[in-house]
Structures are given as structure tokens and as C-alpha cells.
Amino acid sequence: MKKIGFNPAGLREFKLHEVALRFFFGGFSTVFAALIAQRFGPVIGGLFLAFPAIFPAGATLIVTREKEPMEQSADVSPPVSTHREP
Predict the structure, then answer these.
(1) CB 37 within 8 A of CB 53
(2) What is the model's pTM?
(3) From CA 30, how far away is CA 34, in angstroms rounded?
(4) Other CB atoms within 10 Å distance of the CB of residue 23
(5) What does the alpha-carbon distance between residue 65 and residue 71 come to, in Å, rounded to a whole number?
(6) What angle do CA 7, 25, 33 make, to 5 degrees?
(7) 25-68: per-residue pLDDT in tens?
(8) Are the C-beta atoms of residues 21 and 48 closer than 8 Å to each other?
(9) Structural domain boundaries in the chain
């Protein structure tokens, strides 16, 4: 089992403006969720409050998958069109 740890050297990978932008976006989303909760109730506001946590995770997953090389085997043929010209 792998131990959970903290490596401060990893903080050097981030630029200050990137961290500030993420902080601002998260704060703005939280305030927006509070306004939604006042108007439509805590259940709907809670959905919007989850956005700052869900969106970065999803975006990270998409970027990671796009960076992976697409593996195509040689035995797979391209799709054949069934459309015929008159």
C-alpha cells in the first residue's frame, strides 16, 4: 500500500497566475452558488456549489485522454460508406 505524502517541490510546477486564476474562479463559483441558493433553495444551490470540484476533475480527465496517443491496430479497416451516388 502506497503512503500518502506531500512533496513541496511539486509546487514549483505551477505559476502564480495559474493558481490565482483557479482561486478566483473557485471563489466566483462559490458566490454564484450562494446567490442561486438564496433564489432557488439549497438543493439547487448545492448543485452549483459542486461545480468547482467536478469541472476541473472532468477537464483534467479529458486533457489526459487527449494527450494519450491513439492506438490503432493494422487489422482495423476504415468504415465503408453505404451511400451510393445516383
Answers:
(1) no
(2) 0.51
(3) 6
(4) 10
(5) 12
(6) 120
(7) 888 888 998 999 999 999 999 888 887 777 766 776 676 666 66
(8) no
(9) 14-66
